[in-house]
Amino acid sequence: MSRHKHKKRFGQNFLHNPRVIERIVKAIRPQPTDHLVEIGPGEAAITLPLARSGARVDVIEIDRDLIPRLEALFAPHDNVTLHAADALTFDYSTLDPKPLRVVGNLPYNISSPLLFHLLDYRDHIRDMHFMLQKEVVDRIVAQPGSKTYGRLSVMIQYYCEAQYLFTVGPGNFNPPPKVDSAIVRLTPRPFPVQAKDDTLLSDLVKQAFSQRRKTLRNTLKGWLDDTDFEALGIDPGLRAEALPVADFVRLANHLHHKRVHD
Fold first, then answer.
1. Per residue in 99-156, pLDDT tens?
2. Where are the membrane-spanning stretches (predicted)?
3. For 119, phi and psi rounded to 5 degrees?
4. Which alpha helices (H) appear in the chain, and where do they start and end?
5. In a domain, 193, yes or no
6. What is the rounded end-to-end Cα distance, in angstroms, of the chain?
7. pLDDT digits (tens, 9 = 90+) for 52-87
8. Residue ranges making up the domain that contains 136
9. Per the annotation, does 15 bind a ligand?
10. What is the DSSP code (8-state) at residue 177?
């Protein structure tokens, strides 16, 4: 079979280092009873070790030029099902049995929207292991007070426990990307403090970080006033990057209460 021509529009950087592949599979720890979903298998470097664990594996690939190659690779494995589909629009609720364990080397250009699409199915997902641009993983796991702490940090951590596992350098891919990658583990969690309106929370967080150098008093002007901040015991002179996830939830719930009663 001829060599696959990597397509920039799909963000294709295929992992080829066996030691890194082994380390990723060890982090996932697939079991025969698991139902795994792999997004963007590439040339199946991770898929085949996952399949050899005995787990059921559903694979989602958008590049139709890769489908014949993957079908040939998966032919000996009756526990692998290939879906020629777009992971950004795929309905993960149709896959049974649940819960699902999602893995993938995600294209850098669609990583954030894909993460949020998957979070819509969080009730069906046990955990997720992703290779992402290191900068994105740094933002996901960032803590309040960090310069990398932002909207992505707050929203991912609201839904999931996020754990930075390890860094993967460019030389482990073909073709090599221009930046480092990293592996992150995301585990959907029961909400210790649940927002009454997730959309309102998302909108408020986006607004709060819309001008990072300004204080909450300024960025949320017209949303909340000093009386609201005082009622919650939150300093309106803080910047958004100083606020923990739970405080954003408290602000969103307070705003929800105000709007309902107004």
1. 999 999 988 888 999 999 999 999 999 999 999 999 999 999 999 999 999 999 999 9
2. none
3. -65, -20
4. 18-28, 47-52, 67-74, 111-119, 134-141, 151-159, 198-208, 216-219, 226-232, 245-261
5. no
6. 66
7. 999 999 999 999 888 999 999 999 999 999 999 999
8. 8-188
9. yes
10. P
Is the same domain home to 141 and 238?
no
DSSP β-ladder status, 56-61 and 80-84: parallel
Q: Does the annotation list 109 as a binding residue?
A: no
Give the domain CATH number at 85.
3.40.50.150
Confirm or deny that 172 is annotated as ligand binding. Answer: no
81 and 127 within one domain: yes
86 is in an annotated binding site: yes
Question: Which distant-in-sequence residues (6+ apart) come within 8 Å of 236 by Cβ?
Answer: 215, 216, 217, 220, 224, 226, 229
Q: Is 237 annotated as a binding residue?
A: no
pLDDT tens digits, one per residue of 199-225 = 999 999 999 999 999 999 999 999 999
- Beta-bridged to residue 58, according to DSSP, are 37, 81
Q: Are residues 111 and 64 in the same domain?
A: yes
Q: With left for phi above 0 and alpha for psi between -120 and 50, is residue 141 left, alpha or beta?
A: alpha
The tally of domains found in the chain comes to 2
Please enumerate in sequence order all residues whose Cβ is within 8 A of that of 48, keeping only pairs 6 or more positions apart, or say none. 73, 77
Residue 11 has pLDDT above 50, yes or no: no
Do 159 and 211 belong together in one domain? no
- 79 has binding-site annotation: no
Percent pLDDT > 90 in the chain is 83
| Residue range 33-46: mean pLDDT, rounded | 94
Structure tokens at 184: 């992150």
Q: pLDDT confidence of 188, banded at 50, 70, 90?
A: very high
Whether residue 247 sits in one domain with residue 134: no
